């Protein structure tokens, strides 16, 4: 397990490049299973979640060839086969993606098995919406000791589905199942994140008929066959925002090449109100600390087009340096503030509350979840030893260590490789002072 010894106090300055979005690329890879011919996906980052899905697809007979330099994947689904449960379980890693293989495998093989899911430990993260959706399409769902087995002996039929919450994964579940189902599907309460729209674009390239209406309604007309696609994945708006937060927290200046303004509007507004400097260009976005005080803010996470939940953890580190009291109301996950314990050990002043401290409708009020944070600043941060808890909390710990006075020892950095491509190379390129230790 690798660890980092980070000497803080160095402003991060320079340029990084973000490539394909962690929250789109693995789904696009799964979509290739629906095609009768090979697909080609470009702008693919070298991250662990892509490696996990590559292995899972290979277990099911899909050949995945990668042109490493350009990040181009060629996926050939012509020999799809059922994989052994034990093999799937061993390769599922800490990814959320296996659940999305169900629809395509049910179409291709009439059966599917998914292991218990991984992903960031930021709440219970049930899959009840997914299972309900698949039952609505006609799948039989059986809970096993090690996961869930599904079958669709009579194929899959279009359905009317109303999601209780605009779940990204459940929306993807519907899209990946309905496009080849018999008949029409109407989805109400759909998520509309940029990554969802990019997946819809991919499916349309394959021959799917998908209409995105107003008020989160999506209609899909099932077709008997889909063909392979050629697509360049949209950039990772979460990694871009993470580097922006790092620039502010360390007093630096980072040009994020590839960052796409249209996907980050809510983040950019918040960044500007916080007092961060922005230079929005066609090829990327420059994030910088302009000097002077940072302004305290009230930030409420929400589904798109609101402030994305994955943006909040790195931004909280910058809020610890704002001149006053800030509030973050996390309305998407019930347990996403565990990472603040390490920040408080470093000298931050973050108090967690069970109340909804904001006006965004939230499922967690009065349910004993510490899902609102009150952050008092500015507080100088002191170096400490940190073990990374999850992907975004881990990146926030890296930012804090780089902003802190002294030498921090950060372990468990493998988790960060799930969603940040070559992040130690990028940190070195930005002037960070650290040593990588392999244990
Ligand atoms: C791999 C990937 O794309 N991950 C993203 C995806 O996660 P993921 O798709 O897992 O997130 P969802 O949008 O489904 O989850 C949102 C909320 O719905 C709840 N829920 C979800 C499904 C379900 O069956 N039952 C249920 O109750 C979750 O517990 C959570 O409280 O969207 C999240 C919200 O933008 C992001 O933070 C994740 O980075
Ligand atoms: C929660 C996240 O990822 P996942 O859903 O893959 O755990 C994230 O990217 O912040």
Automatic annotation (TrEMBL):
HAMAP family: MurA (MF_00111). Belongs to the EPSP synthase family. MurA subfamily. Keywords: Cell cycle, Cell division, Cell shape, Cell wall biogenesis/degradation, Cytoplasm, Peptidoglycan synthesis, Pyruvate, Transferase. The keyword Cell division applies. Its main location: cytoplasm. It catalyses: phosphoenolpyruvate + UDP-N-acetyl-alpha-D-glucosamine = UDP-N-acetyl-3-O-(1-carboxyvinyl)-alpha-D-glucosamine + phosphate. Its EC number is 2.5.1.7. This is UDP-N-acetylglucosamine 1-carboxyvinyltransferase. Pathway: Cell wall biogenesis; peptidoglycan biosynthesis. Cell wall formation. Adds enolpyruvyl to UDP-N-acetylglucosamine. It is found in: Cytoplasm. Residues 7-427 form the Enolpyruvate transferase domain. The gene is murA_1. The modification 2-(S-cysteinyl)pyruvic acid O-phosphothioketal is found at residue 120. UDP-N-acetyl-alpha-D-glucosamine binds at residues 96, 310, 332. Phosphoenolpyruvate binds at residues 22-23. Pfam families: EPSP_synthase (PF00275). It comes from Kocuria gwangalliensis. PANTHER family: UDP-N-ACETYLGLUCOSAMINE 1-CARBOXYVINYLTRANSFERASE.
């Amino acid at each position: 397990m690798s660890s980092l010894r980070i000497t803080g106090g160095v402003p991060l300055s320079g340029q990084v490049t973000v490539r394909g979005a962690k929250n789109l690329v693995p789904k696009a890879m799964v979509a290739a299973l629906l095609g009768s011919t090979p697909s080609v996906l470009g702008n693919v980052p070298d991250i662990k979640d892509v490696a996990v899905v590559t292995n899972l697809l290979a277990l099911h007979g899909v050949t995945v060839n990668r042109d490493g330099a350009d990040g181009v994947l060629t996926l050939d689904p012509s020999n799809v086969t059922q994989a052994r449960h034990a093999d799937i379980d061993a390769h599922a890693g800490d990814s959320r993606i296996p659940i999305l293989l169900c629809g395509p495998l049910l179409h291709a093989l009439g059966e599917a098995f998914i292991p218990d899911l991984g992903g960031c430990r930021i709440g219970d993260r049930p899959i009840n919406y997914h299972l309900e959706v698949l039952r609505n399409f006609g799948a039989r769902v059986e809970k096993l000791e090690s996961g869930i087995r599904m079958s669709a002996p009579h194929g899959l039929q279009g359905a009317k589905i109303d999601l209780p919450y605009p779940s990204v994964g459940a929306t993807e579940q519907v899209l990946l199942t309905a496009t080849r189902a018999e008949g029409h599907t109407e989805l109400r309460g759909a998520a509309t994140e940029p990554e969802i729209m990019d997946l819809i674009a991919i499916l349309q390239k394959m021959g799917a008929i998908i209409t995105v209406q107003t008020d989160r309604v999506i209609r899909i007309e099932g077709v008997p066959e889909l063909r392979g696609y050629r697509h360049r994945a949209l950039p990772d708006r979460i990694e871009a925002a993470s580097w922006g937060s790092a620039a502010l927290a360390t007093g630096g200046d980072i040009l994020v090449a590839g960052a796409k303004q249209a996907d980050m509007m809510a983040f950019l507004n918040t960044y500007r109100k916080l007092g961060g400097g922005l230079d929005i260009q066609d090829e990327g976005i420059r994030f910088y600390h302009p000097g002077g005080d940072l302004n305290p803010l009230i930030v409420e996470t929400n589904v798109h087009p609101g402030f994305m939940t994955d943006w909040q953890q790195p931004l909280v580190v910058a809020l610890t340096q704002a001149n006053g009291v800030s509030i973050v109301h996390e309305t998407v996950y019930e347990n996403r503030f565990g990472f603040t314990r390490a920040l408080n050990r470093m000298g931050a002043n973050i108090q967690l509350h069970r109340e909804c401290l904001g006006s965004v409708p939230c499922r967690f009020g009065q349910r004993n979840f510490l899902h609102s944070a009150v952050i008092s600043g500015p507080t100088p941060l002191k170096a400490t030893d940190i073990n990374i808890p999850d992907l975004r909390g881990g990146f926030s710990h890296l930012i804090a260590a780089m902003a802190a006075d002294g030498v921090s020892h950060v372990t468990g950095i493998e988790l960060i490789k799930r969603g940040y491509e070559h992040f130690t190379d990028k940190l070195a390129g930005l002037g960070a002072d650290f040593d990588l230790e392999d244990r």
